[in-house]
Write a structure and sequence with these properties.
Layout: E1 6-7, H1 10-17, H2 23-40, E2 45-50, H3 53-58, E3 70-74, H4 80-93, E4 94-95, E5 106-109, E6 116-120, E7 126-127
Parallel strand pairs: 1-2
Antiparallel strand pairs: 2-3, 3-6, 4-7, 5-6
């Protein structure tokens, strides 16, 4: 089955399908997309797969980055309370870092092109019991 996500550009699609994206992050975003599609018929759009500037510098800015551990997803036409509920759904399932509960796997953020959700993972990210 095809994942229920769209891509802002071919670059994001290639990175999504490549080996530079943390597989756990891809799993979390896919899980979110499946739930959003099942409940609301959303097709979230991957707009960015993020890495840090220091990681890029370490690879001499060539574009050959280390594992991507953050993704931005745009969801157009979604009311804020529904968006917040879906973000809460993801955070109820995943702990960014059990020792640092102030950090979340998913959070909504305003953006000029519409509502976005930022997903992030670290080495300690785990499914909640």
């Amino acid at each position: 089955m095809t994942e229920p996500v769209l891509f802002k550009s071919f670059r994001q699609e290639k990175e999504w399908e490549g080996d530079l994206l943390d597989p756990l992050l891809q799993n979390i975003v896919t899980e979110f997309a499946n739930e959003a599609f099942a409940k609301y018929g959303w097709l979230p759009t991957i707009t960015d797969i993020l890495r840090t500037k220091s990681e890029d510098r370490a690879m001499e800015g060539t574009g050959m980055h280390v594992l991507g551990r953050a993704v931005d997803v745009r969801v157009k036409g979604v009311r804020q309370e529904v968006l917040d509920a879906m973000v809460g759904w993801s955070n109820a399932r995943w702990a960014y870092d059990p020792k640092r509960s102030q950090f979340l796997v998913a959070y909504a953020k305003p953006h000029g092109t519409g509502p976005h959700i930022h997903f992030q993972v670290c080495a300690s990210t785990r499914r909640k019991q």
